[in-house]
Amino acid sequence: MLHQNTIKNLIGALATILPPAVSVTAQQNESVSLAVAHEIIAKRDESRTTSALSDKMKVNGLNMYYKLAGEGEPVVFIAGLASDHLEWLPAHVPTFTAAGYRCVLFDNRDAGQTDESPIAAYTIKQLADDAAGLLKQLGIKQAHIVGESMGGMIAQELAIKYPELVRSPTLVCSWARSEPFHKALSESWKNLRRKFSLEESFQTFGLWFFSSRFYENPEAEQTFLAEVRANPYPQSVAAFERQWDAILTQNTLDRLSRITAPSHVIAGDRDMLVPLRLSRIMAEKIPGAKLTVLPESSHVLAFENPAAFNQVALDFLKEH
């Protein structure tokens, strides 16, 4: 649920304290964080000129942007609110392709290089229809699905409505049904986007995205905001509001029992946007679902600490 220009990946490189699952000490992280940040930035720039296949395809009346990288069993990455495929490129795609997977990335309607929605209102189910239509046109018969935040909502709908397409869903910092808190939060965030610049808005959003440890590194927030300013495909205020409205209408709580594919719910114990109890409820409702809770992690755990996320996500995929 973050800005679409690999912000989360860069922040992950700057985090000064990692959970125990990662074999790097806090002191080592502090000494190399800036060097790692420069390396991630270089990889980001390289990824924009990569030879991996990218194109647009007409799906449900939209020109949908997609990108394919690697060879092997397909893994589809779905971004969250206000984000696009670029968020996954530097810190996740190289790791997954090296592990023998083919990465399939795309931009949801109203984000990145995919068209803005031609209709004024839509649902998460329609976003799932977009994703399913793209996969079918690409000839992908079945894939692992990794969805973050709103992307996890889309992954839920894919697993329910298109079970033949989903080998396993990995639902990252996502939830099944919005609460009154999310409605109030959406109005607050919409007002910020209407009244302030993109950078000013995301400076506030960051307080919800990241853990308090993130801000212990003086470079982290500035790197985050620099990426917001550099975004080549900024999301319009209207598109931002439409995506939020889709989130608020979503409710799979009574349908999660229909998911038959092996499922992995990944949550952060410090996520203020999606409290841990919501992830626990979702994992309890999905038959046989595995719940992984990353310590000292907030809403964008996959990008604040990509090494730990990649490890637990790939371990699950290798088992299924």
Q: Can you put this structure into words, describing what you see?
A:
Helix 7 crosses helix 8 (220-230). The chain has an 8-stranded mixed sheet with strand order 1-2-4-3-5-6-7-8, with helices on both faces. The chain has 320 residues and is α/β, with parallel strands linked by helices. Mean pLDDT is 87; it is low at 2-51. The protein has 12 helices and 8 strands. The chain has helices at 7-14, 26-47, 93-98, 124-137, 150-161, 180-195, 198-209, 220-230, 237-249, 276-285, 301-304, 306-319, and strands at 53-59, 62-69, 73-78, 101-106, 143-148, 166-172, 264-268, 290-294. A hairpin with a 2-residue loop joins strand 1 and strand 2 (62-69). It has one domain (7-314): 3-Layer(aba) Sandwich (Rossmann fold), CATH 3.40.50.1820. The longest helix has 22 residues, at 26-47.
